[in-house]
Amino acid sequence: MTLLRSRPGTDGERDTAPPALPAARRAPAVWARDLAMGMRFAAGGGREGWIRTALTAAGVALGVAVLLLGASAPTLMNAWHAREKARENLGQAHPPPPGDRTLLYASANTTFHGTAIRGRLVRPDGTRPPVPPGLDHLPGPGRMVVSPALKELLDSPGAGLLRERLGAYRIAGVIGDEGLQGPRELTYLAQSTTLGERDGYRIDHFGKNWEPRPLTAPATVLVIMTCVALLTPVMVFIGTSVRFGNERRERRLAALRLVGADVRTTRRIASGEALFGSLLGLLGGGLLFLAARQLAPAITLWDINVYSADVAPGPVTALLIAVLVPAAAVLVTLVAQRGVTVEPLGVVRHRPPVRRRLWWRLALPVLSALLLVPLVLRHRQPWDDTPVNTFRLAAGSTLLLFGITALLPWLVERVVGRLRGGPVPWQLAVRRLQLNSGPATRAVSGITVAVAGAIAIHMLMTGMQTGYAAAYAKSGQVPRISFWGHTDTWRSTERALAALRATPGVTAAHGTIDLNAGRMPAPGRDLSRDLPAVLTVGSCAELRHLARLPACKDGDVFVTDARPDRDTGITPGATLNLNPPLVYGEPAGRPRPWTVPPAARAARLLPSGDGHPRYYDLLLTPAALDPARYTAPDMQLDVDFDRGTPDAVEHIRNTAARIGPTMYESSSVDNPHDRQLDGVRTALFTGAVITLLLIGAGLIISTVEQLHERRRLLSVLDAHGTRRATLGWSVLWQTALPVALGLALAVTCGLTLGTLLLTIIGTGLAVDWAGIAGITAIGAAVILFVTALSLPPLWRMMRPDGLRTE
Amino acid sequence: MSIGHTLLGLLESGPRHGYDLKRAFDEHFGQDRPLHYGQVYSTMSRLLKNGLVEVDGVEAGAGPERKRYAITDAGVTDVAQWLARPEKPEPYLQSTLYTKVVLALMTGRDAAELLDGQRTEHLRLMRGLTERKRSGDLADQLICDHALFHLEADLRWLELTAARLDKLAAAVRG
Amino acid sequence: MTPEGSLLAAEGLRKAYGPTPALDGADFSIHPGEVVAVMGPSGSGKSTLLHCLAGIIRPDSGTVRYGPHTLTDLSDTHRSALRRTDFGFVFQFGQLVPELTCLENVALPLRLNATRRKAAEHRARDWLERLEVDDVAAKRPGEISGGQGQRVAVARALAPQPRVVFADEPTGALDSLNGERVLTLLTDAARDTSAAVVLVTHEARVAAYADREIVVRDGRVKDMAGRI
Question: In chain C, which ranges are continuous DSSP H helix?
């Protein structure tokens, strides 16, 4: 065995000078040699060796894949935003004058059966208009280009009403991938011949959008915690898999020691074995990542859906992952060897039940508390999204999660150590855990971190969304859809109302024209902090819908009690500016004075149906103000419908599209938060299931191996007439105890962490008990799963074959 | 060791001259102590007197008197009884037992049976010694243990021989 | 060989593992309170005979009778129950549950027989005392010597007061002195409770503790008692 260095003799060399130790000089060569030898063992270790290699590889592969996917998130979001920016122009501060290279641009978004469809209308001013990515040229007049997903939707049998809504345009082509955010995006771009100057705005190029906001602190915490929660079980799995078949490996290493290998050599050889699995795993992880990103087009999470090609980690990150994960696997192997010395005649474990000390295990949670508690204590102030706070939040949460891991072995030992008595299977399981709580603790740590992470993430997400979602849900209870869009005259508004009232399912439609007015500029009068007043124009019937009017005929004007406590300057006889600046600090346009008729009377506003207050300062009948003097008039239409009529909402939207395709819809009939939260919940749930399965797989491995090691004992117990059920139950308890402990801790820690985080960011608490119950149920299922899979080997080991000494 | 029984056993396979008997004995059993002619003739004359052998014929010739001996029925019975009777377990029994085993094999008798009988005898004695040891004082125990270890060594030899009977049979007959 | 009045009797046992027969028509019987040594070279089928007699495995053919029961006709569940209540076992090594204390190990068969924990552990303590190892009651098997472990195992086999104790090379891993002591304690205790002992061994000095011995050779049993 030339690969093994023999230890220098101690006696024979006393007289002669010891030969110069070549080891130091040749250290890299020695390392390479021993690692290579370990790898050869891993590859040639028979069935058991291959199983261990495969398990290590599987663990590393999962870790690598998860990390690569996680590392792809920033690039993915960048790509997603870049695609949006490239095809968009949200308006230019100084609109270009019409020319050969300009076009009129307007949004014509719509919703169909709860799914948002992005629509854009263009009307080129000349022959060389800008063209967004994904298109060779703009569609011709009355034509549109659609995304493949929209084309598919339009072709589907249930989309008759959508076909009708977009019926004004013929499909002239399909938008290429570079013009879409994701493969499942629904979008169209149509050339409208009727698009008016007032319906949209003029642009001369695409590729202008707001920069995406950097992730808020809670979102950063979310991302970090997701990674931690996903990776911990993977590390646990790797930890379990590299320990698989330890006994045989130790025997082999002992044999090597017998022929002269030293302790460090055996450690290096063991590392080599783990390294082989890790390298295989690295390869597998890469392949797994490539396979997983092929699934990206099919997944929509938080309304984000991307192309496979956009799922790519940065090169530096990828390199780091490729180096660090296999290194971690080797490290775990070395840690597993800690306290174990392979002697030539066997294995010596120097760790007679170590008393686990508490003090250092408390360090991490204490550190985390130091970071988080001050944030909690000043929670009366609104959350301040500074980098320091973000760091504290992220570091605090992560430390807390890891701190639990450090605290767990101590806790498990304490809890299990206190258990006494009970029936035989229970006693066997408890005693087993008392004697060797290592695998159990690893499983518990994995479960705790993963599930606690999932619960905290879920709480954080729901908490962040809970305000919006609740408001949405409340509004959604009223069957009402509102639209607003450009209008010219009361007559056209009335036509729109008539059309809506004639739509199937509509029970009532009300509408007014809204204008703004402000105080007239005057020397010494600071208007910069004025809120523009709202003037609303409508027939007596429509105005009566808004306010209690004393009497009304066309030409009347009413001053309301919208802002009784404030001096708005809106009084009968006052002169108002009909062209006020709408945004603070915006340069005011040319004032358009208008005098409130002195005969204007007072009127009291009625509360709106959905409980929101109304802010109409002046109510005008159509004859009270010449439409020519309107500045930026908008019509506001509220449509009530009957939920019982099928597709009433879609019919209303079709009517609205006919009235004006650029009309904005504001409604709460489709709550996007539900879908977003459902998606996240499904994802977290799936993650928790995968995590628990992974930990379950680790438990099966260690359980079966443990059964294998005690084959003889099982046969002896069988000889004594032990019922199979007795040992079956003991396996169940042995699995159930750590998993249950882990889940209990996970729920406690998750709720604590979640509450802490929500208190810090100052949002309401919402606990998803159903989700927690679900995760607990999965935990129970994993226990049964592990037990069920361990039973056949148990029965097999209980055969009397084990009694034969040969 | 009984030379008489051994020579009788050798005669069972057929009549032999005295000279042949000596040669056969030396070949199988006399590794370190070859037989004198005198021993052969005195033993044969005792066996003749007891009617266990008879003189089959005399070859006259130049050399010493050459008698050919054959075994009688009484002789065969005597050999069988001797073989079947376990020896009293005692130290250095092996040579006797070995002779018995080889003779049993040569005469086509069940050598395994012979060994089993001997081991039963050994064990009976060992049981007795064990019983004595259990009730006796320390001196008794030490004395009994001495005997027990010797007997155990014999028994091991018996077992080993039993396990090698086939090989031995081939060597003896071949 | 007189099966009349015997406690446990086997007739014509055959058992093969694959093509090689381990037992080839073996007969056996044992009386209450009798200690029978089963001897024979390794691989001769001694242990297989013990496993068949104890109902741990079912022979391919032949019958094992135990009192009124025909063991070979009983279901696995019944045989297991019988082993729990009527039989005790001592093996060469690796038989104590490493996680349980010695006391709990001895109490284990009692508890498998649905004895309450307190009562079982009380009785277990008596047996540990009787086998002179009550000082290791609270220790785990990993912390005691081989001789002590084997005494604990004997205590465990005897604690439920079985009618037959099966001991497979019970002193195989012990030095002479410890082995002798364990055998003395085992056979004394068995005689006191008039339990029959089937003592599988390849050592004559161990077999000398028995009342009689049988030899298993090539799967067949030779009863040496018949030769005297």
Answer: 46-53, 76-86, 102-112, 117-130, 146-158, 176-192, 204-207
